[in-house]
C-alpha cells in the first residue's frame, strides 16, 4: 500500500529537481548577459554599428553576452533603466542627471578619446554659412532646432546660454522644433528645414569627417563652456562582481572607435558629483527634474 506513495513522492522530487535545474539554467543565462542602453545620438542601427567594436571588446573581456538597445529618445533609456530592463547605459549628461533623480542609477565611467585627451565637450549653435547670420542676436525671428528635451548639448546648455546672454528662446525664434538626434539637426540646417540648431561639437566634426557635411556648409555662431562627457551608468543594485567586470573591461578598451567620439583611449572612473554643473545649469532654467518624468 505504501508503494504508490513512495513512487509518487520520488516522481515529484524528480520533477522538482528538473524544474530547479531549468530555473537555475535560466538564471545562469540571465547572469551571463549584460544589457546596455545607448542614447539615440544617431538612428538606432547607426548607433549600434558605431558602437560595435566597443560592444565586442566588452563581451570578450567580461565573458558575458552584451545586448545593445537604442530607444527612440532619451526617456526611453531612462524608463528601461527604471524598469530594470537594462543593466548599464550610455547617457548624455543631462539625461543622466534626470535618470539619477528617478531611477536607482549612478555614473561610474567616462570615455577618454585620443583626439581630445579629456572627458568634456561643447555645445555649438550652427547656421548655414550662406544665411548671413553671424551672431546670436541675428537669430531673432529665425527657425531653430534643439535635439531632445533631455539633451545636454542639444538643449539644456544652449538654452541656458541664451538665457544668460539675455535672450528668451521662446521669443527669440519664430519656431522651435526637437529633431530627435544631433545628426537630424545638422541635416535640418543644411537642407534649409530650419535656420539654426544646437548640436554637440564632436558630432558636428564627425559629420564633416564622414562627408555628410562640407567643411564650408555651416558656421558656428555660439559655443558653450565645457560640458562633462556623457557617462556610462549602471543600476546601483547590479551584482558587485558584474560591476567590477564591466569597469575593468571598459578601462582596458583602447584603440577602437566609440560612436561620434572617435578613437578611444580607455574609460576612466567618474562620479555623480562630476555632473553637479549640469544640475546647476538646470537650475538656471528653473527645471524641476522630478517633474519631467
Task: Provide an overview of this structure.
Helices cover 42% and strands 24% of the residues. With 293 residues, the chain is α/β, with parallel strands linked by helices. It folds into 2 domains: 152 residues, 3-Layer(aba) Sandwich (D-Maltodextrin-Binding Protein, domain 2), CATH 3.40.190; 103 residues, Periplasmic binding protein-like II (D-Maltodextrin-Binding Protein, domain 2), CATH 3.40.190. Helix 4 packs parallel to helix 5. The radius of gyration is 23 Å and the shape is globular. The relative contact order is 0.19.
Summarize the structure.
The chain has eleven helices and 14 strands.
Write the SSE topology:
Blueprint: H1 3-31, E1 33-38, H2 44-50, H3 52-62, E2 65-70, H4 74-82, E3 88-90, H5 93-102, E4 105-113, E5 120-121, E6 123-128, E7 143-146, H6 152-164, H7 169-172, E8 175-178, H8 182-190, E9 196-200, H9 201-209, E10 218-223, E11 227-228, E12 231-235, H10 240-252, E13 254-257, E14 263-269, H11 276-284
Parallel strand pairs: 1-2, 1-3, 7-8, 7-9
Antiparallel strand pairs: 3-12, 4-12, 4-14, 5-11, 6-9, 6-10, 13-14
Helix pairs in contact: 3-10, 4-5, 6-11
Amino acid at each position: 500500500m505504501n508503494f504508490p506513495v513512495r513512487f509518487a513522492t520520488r516522481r515529484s522530487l524528480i520533477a522538482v529537481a528538473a524544474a530547479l535545474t531549468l530555473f537555475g539554467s535560466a538564471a545562469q543565462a540571465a547572469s551571463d548577459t549584460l544589457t546596455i542602453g545607448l542614447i539615440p545620438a544617431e538612428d538606432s542601427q547607426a548607433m549600434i554599428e558605431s558602437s560595435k567594436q566597443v560592444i565586442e571588446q566588452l563581451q570578450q573581456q567580461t565573458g558575458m553576452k552584451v545586448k545593445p538597445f537604442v530607444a527612440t529618445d532619451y526617456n526611453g533609456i531612462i524608463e528601461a533603466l527604471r524598469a530594470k530592463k537594462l543593466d548599464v547605459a550610455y547617457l548624455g549628461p543631462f539625461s543622466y542627471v534626470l535618470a539619477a533623480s528617478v531611477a536607482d542609477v549612478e555614473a561610474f565611467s567616462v570615455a577618454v578619446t585620443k583626439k581630445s585627451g579629456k572627458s568634456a565637450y561643447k555645445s555649438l549653435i550652427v547656421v548655414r554659412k550662406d544665411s548671413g547670420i553671424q551672431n546670436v542676436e541675428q537669430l531673432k525671428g529665425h527657425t531653430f532646432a534643439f535635439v531632445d528635451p533631455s539633451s545636454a548639448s542639444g538643449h539644456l546648455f544652449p538654452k541656458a546660454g541664451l538665457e544668460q546672454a539675455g535672450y528668451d528662446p521662446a521669443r527669440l525664434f519664430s519656431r522651435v522644433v526637437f529633431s530627435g538626434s544631433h545628426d537630424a539637426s545638422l541635416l535640418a540646417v543644411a537642407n534649409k528645414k530650419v535656420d539654426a540648431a544646437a548640436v554637440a561639437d564632436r558630432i558636428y566634426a564627425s559629420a564633416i569627417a564622414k562627408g555628410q557635411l562640407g567643411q564650408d556648409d555651416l558656421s558656428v555662431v555660439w559655443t558653450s563652456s565645457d560640458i562633462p562627457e556623457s557617462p556610462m551608468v549602471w543600476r546601483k543594485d547590479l551584482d558587485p562582481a558584474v560591476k567590477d567586470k564591466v569597469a575593468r573591461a571598459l578601462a582596458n578598451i583602447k584603440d577602437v572607435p566609440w560612436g561620434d567620439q572617435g578613437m578611444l583611449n580607455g574609460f576612466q572612473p567618474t562620479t555623480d558629483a562630476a555632473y553637479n554643473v549640469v544640475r546647476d545649469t538646470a537650475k538656471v532654467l528653473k527645471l524641476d527634474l522630478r517633474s519631467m518624468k
